[in-house]
Amino acid sequence: MSDLIRIYGKSLTTIFLGLTALWIVALIVVPQLRMIERAFVVDRYSDEAARVGVEINRSYTRVFTIDQELDRAAAGPTAPTAPSPFSPSPSSAKPSTPSAFATPSASSGGAVSTDPDRTATLKAEKAELQARIAELEVREKEVKAGGTGYALGNFTSMSAIHAKIFLSTLMYALCVTILAFLACYPVAYAVATSRSSERVALLMLGLVIPYAINELLRIFSWIMILEKHGVLNRLLDSLGLIDLAAGEGMRFVASNGAVFAVMVYAYILFMVFPIYNTIETLDRNQIEAARDLGASTWRIHWRVVLPHAKPGIAVGAVMTFMLSAGSIAAPEIVGRGLHPDWFSQVIYQRFFESNNWNQGSAYALVLLVACVVFVLGVMGLFKVGIRDIAK
Amino acid sequence: MRGNDVVLSDVSMRFGDFTAVHPTDLTVREGEFFSILGPSGCGKTTILRMISGFLDPSSGGIAIGGVPMAGLGPNRRPTALIFQNLALFPLMTVWENVAFGLEARGVPIVERKRRASELLSLVALDDQGHKKPTELSGGQRQRVAVARALAVEPAVLLLDEPLSALDLKLRQHMRAELKDIQRRTGVTFIYITHDQGEALTMSDRIAVMNQGRVQQVGTGDEIYDRPATPFVATFVGEQNVFQGRVTATNDGQAVVDTAVGPLRGTSQGTLSIGDEALLFVRPERVSLMNGATASPDNRIDAEVERRDLEGSFVNLHLRAGNHPISVHLTNAGSGRDVVSGGQRVSFQADDAVVMRAGEFARE
Ligand SMILES: Nc1ncnc2c1ncn2[C@@H]1O[C@H](COP(=O)(O)OP(=O)(O)OP(=O)(O)O)[C@@H](O)[C@H]1O
Ligand SMILES: [Mg+2]
Questions:
Q1: How far is the centre of ligand 1, averaged over its atoms, from the C-alpha of B42 (Å)?
Q2: Does residue A188 fall inside a structural domain?
Q3: Which letter, b or e, does each residue of A223-252 get, where b requires 16 or more Cβ atoms within 10 Å of its Cβ?
Q4: By CB distance 3.0 to 4.6 Å, which of A282, B131, B217, B324 could disulfide with B207?
């Protein structure tokens, strides 16, 4: 502290410390604390509160749809428009929905909207909905006034199926990490031990260029490879292994294998670079010395290269594990709902479909804790300290 | 040829269109301390890497103990290499380092430990086995590298400038120690260095290289007293060099007409009258004439310019016309060698070498 003041002077030091404090508070303390707090908040009437909340949201959505339709009617006959993306899907309409006039979303756009009767009906429905919303909001206040408290309910109420998804997600993430390591170690080794002129080209070609593309696009491109009439099946077809025309295309998408493949691909960079970085610092004479002393290739890797690369492997494993455990895009897109859920998808559903933010927070916290445990476990296993990793 | 001689026949190495080693024949005898001496970039490491199997010669063949080495990788040759930077395994303990070659051969751990501690006591590191290499001093690391290489019981130990990273005192100490280890184990050492002092003190025989060619192979005395080429003459030790034309030859001697007058020396190879030639004489073979000296073969009149005290000897810088002459005198003490003004210096024809003009060693 006094060192800093001596080097930079009082005002600069104040700015430094202020920015650091802001960083810590805004990026670390507040979000984490908020989530942790939410995780332990249990609504006494959580069931009813949730139901009321869902209904209020749904009613607002419906009012919005009606407003749009009325606007269109007022603007005169126009070309048919696509159904509003906000219209509730019929399957999610609950019996408790008060609106008897709830119509299938398909009718909310269309050519008949100039009909004055229809306009009147819509107006009536809107008025009714608004009344209902007011009523519900009062009710919601009552329910919430029933109070909330701190308890472990959000955790203990985790259903068996969610617990199972949680555990299998950790297993899958571990599999992805291991697969990524198996794929990356040889690549990192080859690049790191290649001659320096070739190295840049190899790195650019193999790793940097693919990663210049957005993650979502990369996932979609993999679907194009894996889908029934995709690149892979057509390749097999042209090799004569399968007959696409006879419908023998293999179903690669929506399988664990496909999700793993895509995830390994998506996070390979986070594994390759740390390993590459550490192997690059290995004195190549050590590899030659081991060979000269009679060691086989396998032993050279096991005794010389791998131990040296350990910190890099640990960093790569931690990053790949965290990213794949928390990944939502790959399982959502590649899994196409047919794949067993990833825990991140469950968390998403808690937040945005069940409208149970408290439990969502609790689930997220569970995942976070699992990841931290994994990090500590990996560090213990590899006997590397934070300091080695920082290097 | 004896048991484990290393024989290079017509071995060369090209990298693209650059020839690092020109076709070379070389025989290193079993149990010999053999040095390869040459300036940086002359191809020493390249030769060593060909012997150890990391490089395949572009032509020719290498045999050890009569067995051709072509096609055998470094792990299957009876050689062990000590790298310029030692290349100890930093994450293993000292004894694991030493026992690594045995581990690679599947020797059980008890036996490995026993052998490692034997070797560590050979190099006087008895109780350092449990340490990491980084916890040792430079000289100790050096000895670990030697023990690690000896553990695989190689027929030939290849050392690539192993002392270059050490400071002067330690280097001198390690010279004696390496020589001692070589004597006790009887293993053939092929030792690379660009330090002539190292080569002269340790070696049974020395090969002097320049620009990919072996210029001369011989004992230290042969190299020092009877250099075969101008390069060897000037690379090893100091020389006074006189240039001129041969005016007479007889009986293995030649007279060269130089800027300081005709000088007589022992001729190397065939020289005929009129050849452009160089006469080399070492500063310590030149002496000051003080009347009493009986008729020397060569005498030169010169002016003393400077006297440098080097410790055990004194370096006198003289000038004969435009030609500098250096004379080393034993430090006799009491300033007896303090001389000035005009002096006459002399040397015997036996101590001077005359050879056809050629390439010098660059300073
Ligand atoms: N792999 C290679 N590719 C191209 N040229 C090389 C290669 N290895 C060595 N050379 C060249 O061959 C020549 C001899 O190299 P070498 O390493 O044998 O020299 P050295 O005598 O060991 O020198 P130093 O004393 O500096 O270690 C050098 O000019 C070097 O540039
Ligand atoms: Mg070298």
A1: 7
A2: yes
A3: bebbbeebebbeebbeeeebeeeeeebeeb
A4: B217
Give how far B116 is from chain A: nearest CA, Å. Answer: 14
Q: How many CB pairs under 8 A join A and B?
A: 63
Distances from the Cα of B61 to the Cα of A330, B12, B47, B207, angstroms: 58, 9, 12, 19
Test B74 with A299 for CB contact under 8 angstroms.
Answer: no
> Taking the model in full, what pTM does it have?
0.74
- Domain assignment of residue A331, yes or no: yes
Q: Is A141 inside any structural domain?
A: no
What is the CATH number for A250?
A: 1.10.3720.10
pLDDT per residue, tens digit, chain B (363 aa), is 457 889 999 999 999 899 999 999 999 999 999 999 999 999 999 999 999 999 999 999 999 998 999 889 898 899 999 998 899 999 999 999 999 999 999 999 999 999 999 999 988 888 888 999 999 988 899 889 999 999 999 999 999 998 887 888 888 888 988 999 899 889 999 999 988 989 999 999 999 999 999 999 999 999 999 999 999 999 998 999 999 999 988 888 899 998 888 999 998 777 888 888 999 999 999 988 776 656 778 888 888 888 888 888 888 899 988 889 999 988 877 666 667 778 888 898 889 999 988 767 654
- The complex's ipTM works out to 0.82
> Which residues on A lie below 8 Å from B91 (Cβ)?
307-308
| Token reading at B62 | 């290498």
> Which residues of chain A neighbour B88 with C-beta distances below 8 Å?
289
Residue type, B173: H
Q: How far is CA A52 from CA A46, B39, B168, in A?
A: 10, 89, 87
Look up the domain containing A235 and give its range. 158-390
How many domains does chain A fold into?
A: 1
Instruction: Decide whether any atom of ligand 1 lies within 6 Å of the B45 Cβ.
Output: yes
Q: Is B15 in the pocket of ligand 1 (CB under 6 A)?
A: yes
Identify the residue whose tokens are 């395994």. B89
Task: At B157, list the tokens.
Answer: 């130990």
Please check whether residue A37 lies inside any domain of the structure.
Answer: no
Q: What is the DSSP string of A7-68?
A: HH-HHHHHHHHHHHHHHIIIIIIHHHHHHHHHHHEEETTHHHHHHHHHHHHHHHHHHHHHHH
Instruction: Spell out the residues 6+ positions from residue A96 whose beta carbon is closer than 8 angstroms to its own.
Output: A51, A55
- Exposed/middle/buried for residue B253 (C-beta within 10 Å: 0-12, 13-18, 19+): middle
Nearest CA, atom 6, ligand 1: B15
